[in-house]
Amino acid sequence: MEIVICPDAVQAGRLGADAITTLIRRKPDGVLGLATGSSPLGIYDELARRHEAGELSFANARGFTLDEYVGLATEHPETYHNVIRKDFVNRVDFADGAVRGPDGLSDDIPAFCRSYEEAIAAAGGIDLQILGIGTDGHIGFNEPGSSLASRTRIKTLTKQTRIDNARFFGGDIDQVPTHCITQGLGTIMAARHVVLVASGHGKAEAVHQLAEGSVSAMWPGTILQHHPHVTVLLDEAAASRLQLSDYYRETYHAKPAWQGL
Ligand code: GLP
């Protein structure tokens, strides 16, 4: 797991965008795993800027979103289907239908979840998965207690996550759905490269556990310690509880340029 401590979230976003730019230039039909939430916005803003500047095209790229609320109406602005389009997909040039996501209105959720896993496999698997992290250490919507081998399935959101996400629902926790469909920890682990981005003091404990805690279903992101290629992009605040922060800084500064992220 490579930890990169950036001066601010803008720089973290630039580095995340660099990793995606490198992938899409090398493999124009690359498969992206797309996270919603505030954490990846810096990455998406920078990718949209590069696209607008004519530097980057997603015309042949494909994407799968990580998760979705169950039961929100199609036109609800907070479905992750709509959020990822507003934040990223509609700002670049993905082909119609190239970015898919879990169907939170499916009337057979287990069958849908199996078909989602099959669709990811049929696309050749995810080349680069973007992730944020919840204050309780969840990735996707894999809440504490999630099976470390889980695949796409329905989950119940914790009260903490619903409190955290109430800001997107007029501050009213009762408007936040209780259930979601999320790629599992096993699904995320199958991505070839994972880029996790976090900023702010609220994420500092989750980031410390992610990188330095014991692998445990209580901090679901810790499963990434078993992944061979994870890049963690942090601002100073999110890095503030790391025990080995000096070492991570030295390592990154001394890194040979040819290694990339
Ligand atoms: C949300 C999403 C996650 C996201 C996380 C952090 O509930 N399901 O994909 O990474 O929680 O959100 P944010 O980036 O807004 O802090």
Give an overview in words.
This protein has 261 residues and is an alpha/beta fold. Helix content is 31%, strand content 15%. The protein contains 8 helices and 10 strands. It has a 7-stranded parallel beta sheet. It starts with a strand and ends in an 8-residue tail after the last helix. The mean pLDDT is 97. The site of 2-amino-2-deoxy-6-O-phosphono-alpha-D-glucopyranose has 14 residues, from helix 5.
Pick out its properties.
single chain, 261 residues, seven-stranded parallel sheet, three-stranded antiparallel sheet, 8 helices, globular, binds 2-amino-2-deoxy-6-O-phosphono-alpha-D-glucopyranose
Topology (elements, then pairings):
Elements: E1 2-5, H1 9-26, E2 31-34, H2 41-52, E3 62-65, E4 67-69, H3 80-87, E5 99-100, H4 109-122, E6 128-131, E7 153-156, H5 159-165, E8 179-182, H6 185-189, E9 193-198, H7 204-212, E10 230-234, H8 245-253
Parallel strand pairs: 1-10, 2-3, 2-6, 3-5, 6-9, 9-10
Antiparallel strand pairs: 4-8, 7-8
Helix pairs in contact: 1-2
Bound molecules: 2-amino-2-deoxy-6-O-phosphono-alpha-D-glucopyranose.
First-residue to last-residue Cα separation: 11 Å
Q: Give Rg in angstroms.
A: 17 Å
* β-strand amount: 15-25%
List of distinct ligands in this structure: 2-amino-2-deoxy-6-O-phosphono-alpha-D-glucopyranose
pLDDT below 50 for ≥5 consecutive residues: which ranges? none
Order of the strands making up the biggest sheet: 1-10-9-6-2-3-5
Shape: globular
Determine the fraction of residues in helical runs and give it as a percent range.
Answer: 25-40%
**SSE run:** EHEHEEHEHEEHEHEHEH
The whole-number mean of residue pLDDT values reads 97
Overall SS class:
alpha/beta
Number of strands: 10
Q: What is the number of helical segments per DSSP (H or I, 4+ residues)?
A: 8
Sheet with most strands: 7 strands, parallel
